[in-house]
Specification:
Strand order of the largest sheet: 3-4-5
Number of domains: 1
Strand content: over 45%
Order of helices and strands: EEEEE
Radius of gyration: 12 Å
Keywords: Plasmid
Number of helices: 0
Structural class: mainly beta
Helix content: under 10%
């Protein structure tokens, strides 16, 4: 299971994807003046798994 560790103001969090996810993309931007990361995983068949946005800063 692919995992990423992300630092947030209140500690670390882990973002996990199921094993059938072939490609993982991370997009960053600002929301209300804070950095926001959106993690998207894509399965072989093209179906996407989008995780909730994380506000690490």
């Amino acid at each position: 299971m692919p995992e990423f560790r992300v630092r947030k103001p209140d500690g670390w969090t882990t973002v996990s994807f199921p094993d059938e996810v072939a490609t993982i993309s991370v997009v960053g931007g600002k929301v209300d003046g804070q950095l926001c990361l959106t993690f998207t995983g894509e399965r072989e068949g093209g179906t996407s798994v989008v995780l909730d946005r994380l506000l690490p800063s």
